[in-house]
Known about the structure:
By secondary structure, the chain is of the alpha/beta class. The protein is built from 13 helices and 20 strands. Residues 250, 269, 271, 273, 275, 301, 303-305, 320-322, 335 line the site of cytidine-5'-monophosphate (C5P).
Amino acid sequence: MTLSGKKIIIGITGGIAAYKTCDLIRKLIKLNADVRAVITPAAKKFVTETTLRTLTRNSVYCEQFDVPEWKPEHISLADSADLFLIVPASANTIGKMANGICDNLLTSLIAAFNKPVILAPAMNCNMWENSFVQENIVKLEKAGFYIIPPESGELACGYEGTGRLADIGKILEKALEILSKEKFLQGKKIIITAGGTKEPIDPVRYIGNRSSGKMGIALADAAYSFGADVTLVSTIKVDKPYKIINLSTAMEMLETVKNEFSQVDALIMAAAVADFRVNSTSDHKIKKGEKENITLELVKNPDILKEISKIKRDNQVLVGFCAESQDLIENAKKKIGSKNLDFIIANDISDKEIGFNSDYNAVTIIDKFMNEIKIDKTLKKELAKIILKEIFK
Ligand code: C5P
């Protein structure tokens, strides 16, 4: 791997973990990256400009108004860099960034930067758990910043807890992933559904299922990071930098997907859609009264994939999921035909370690020619990338 031709800005804030950033810089330089260090005034207390200048083989930037060229420094630096890493990111700088404050070169530079930013926070564990800090982190994550959370252990301040800078190897790995990422879904519009539908019984109760939505959300995240224009249609509420339509029932999902489908290149139905809904829902909460039992009449929901397959153009891709505890592959293959799918992702739900609510899954990807690709237990986040690469390769 070489980073030759890649320009990286390393922002360093005032925290003891700043000494570890020197190691990260060395590793990036070894990969031939052009590295510029931008430090806050407080960072000077922890790492010297001489050290950073020697390691980066470039000038070190700190003062906002010390501008030798006609173009303000933060604008020209921001224009030319491919990636911005802030290591360590202090609670103070995180707070400023989340609120658009630009009171030094680093925070001004971030405000002017429109390419990927990785933040590796490091601080005292109580600071990290502080609700304002957490709110700011959520805000930045929602805005598309990549956050590498701090790790737990013994902290420089003498405490035990979460706040230690993430492993430098992990930060480097994320930087390499972002810099080498193929934006192979650039220009593609994709709808992804996620979560279990909730079919109302009365204003209080519903019939639901155990889907956590993690797989669908991981697919949406991965598609977005590969450059797709993503619409996530979800029963689970999440904050993400792409378009999200929240809803509850199968009927709402059908209507939404139908409305959006003509403008997209692909639909991935990862949602666990209820096969049945209550025929007539009660306007008022059903009282138990003296009743010993009640009967709910259920009617079949339309099959969203089947409905969409009727309006599908040849150049559109339809992907279904299939969760089975028996005869998985056989059942999945039947669904390719009955739902007119291009791909089906088959989940074996008999294994308790994977699937529902787990961060892991193991699947078989089957295409319409009945080719099978088996993927062993993998983090859903990673699996999502593999699935997208297979579908769009
Ligand atoms: O037939 P089965 O429910 O097992 O198929 C699962 C696949 O079909 C999933 O992709 C799911 O999102 C989709 N589905 C659907 N409409 C339904 C039920 C499931 O599109 N009513």
